[in-house]
Amino acid sequence: MALAATAAEAENYIQWLKQVFFIELTERALPNPFYIKYQNIQKGRIVMEFVTLNNGIKMPLEGFGVFQVPDPAQCEQAVLEAIESGYRLIDTAAAYMNEEAVGAAVKKCGVPREELFITTKLWVQDASFEGARKAIEASLNKLGLTYIDLYLIHQPMGDYIGAYRAMEEAYREGKLRAIGICNFYPHRLADLCETVEVIPAVNQVELHPFFQQEDALALMKEYGVIPEAWGPFAEGKHGIFSHPVLTEIGKKYGKSAAQVALRWNVQRGVVVIPKSVHKERMEQNMNIWDFRLSDEDMSEIAKLDIGHSEIVDHSDPGFVRMLHSMKIHE
Ligand SMILES: NC(=O)c1ccc[n+]([C@@H]2O[C@H](COP(=O)([O-])OP(=O)(O)OC[C@H]3O[C@@H](n4cnc5c(N)ncnc54)[C@H](OP(=O)(O)O)[C@@H]3O)[C@@H](O)[C@H]2O)c1
To answer: Which of 79, 127, 202, 329 is 20 to 30 A from 281, alpha carbon to alpha carbon?
Structure first.
């Protein structure tokens, strides 16, 4: 079989390898020009897939988000339970005010540091060269880590080019294994990529069945930037957890609407970072690696796109002013 040109072909290639050789593809690279995908298989079961970022480092295709979990004890407990449930990527941010709690869980969890993938983000208040240098140190201290796996600019606001230069410096020093951005809509992404030396590895944007952003994904692909979905459940909007289309599709596979929504994103090459403070939901959300949506299912879900966010509007001056006014330190 020839090398795969698309994610779908790569998936077929895996199935073919399995049938022909009855092999388990553990940590094996799969051919794909967009991202090299790996699978982690335990006891014959896929437990996680990975993408390879444009600098060669491996990132799990699913992680755990801790936005809106400001209580330290609850956050620490949630991260410990998430790690127990199989999550290895944890997504926090300076602005979530819970980096210390994430760090405490990382220290306690018993999983070797190198198996974890810790992401945090630079807040708008620190969007300048000097601001970012200090913010990176502050995040390392709060997390209790010597390096951060992925460091993202949280919002395309303030002097983010200056901030990015400081991130490039810290990346070269080995304090950040990969650097990237969030919420960079296509024109901003193109501008950044045409300006900087280190092309961002990841762009974390809102991506779910009701806001699919196919054009933005095409541009990310052109620049070799991996898309990561924040709000993969649309933060519960549109009745996503009991949505009739997702529920019907799920019935065919014995899966919930939530699992279908996550599977749809990972199947199109998007990293997902669902948040939950309930262990049974964490486990449910992680249980998406043993089924595959058909092309027909993917097309049905494509029809749910409404083409805009109902959560935030980055083009709204009021929203921009609100983010600038939000201070997370003196
Ligand atoms: N870069 C950015 O600008 C940005 C913006 C927003 C979010 N993020 C990141 O993305 C992560 C995920 O996004 P999000 O937290 O905004 O929203 P989300 O993951 O789309 O939705 C979280 C909500 O879904 C509920 N939930 C989770 N699993 C469920 C299930 N299986 N069944 C029913 N309900 C379920 C959670 O409730 P319970 O917790 O009560 O279970 C919570 O209310 C964040 O935590 C954060 O790390 C980044």
So the answer is: 202
**Structural domain range at position 319:** 61-325
**Which residue out of 266, 276, 283 has the highest number of ligand 1 atoms within 8 Å of its CB and is therefore the one to mutate?**
276
Q: In what order do the strands lie in the sheet with 117-122?
A: 63-65, 89-91, 117-122, 148-153, 176-182, 202-206, 226-230, 271-272
55 within some domain: no
Tens of pLDDT, residue by residue over 25-36, are 444 444 443 455
Exposure of 311 by Cβ count < 10 A (0-12 exposed, 13-18 middle, 19+ buried)? middle
CATH label of the domain that carries residue 83 = 3.20.20.100
Q: Based on the structure, what is the number of domains in the chain?
A: 1
Q: Which residues are catalytic?
A: 96
**pTM summary value:** 0.91
Ligand 1, pocket residues at CB < 6 Å: 65-67, 91, 154, 182-183, 204, 230-236, 241, 258, 273-278, 281, 284-285
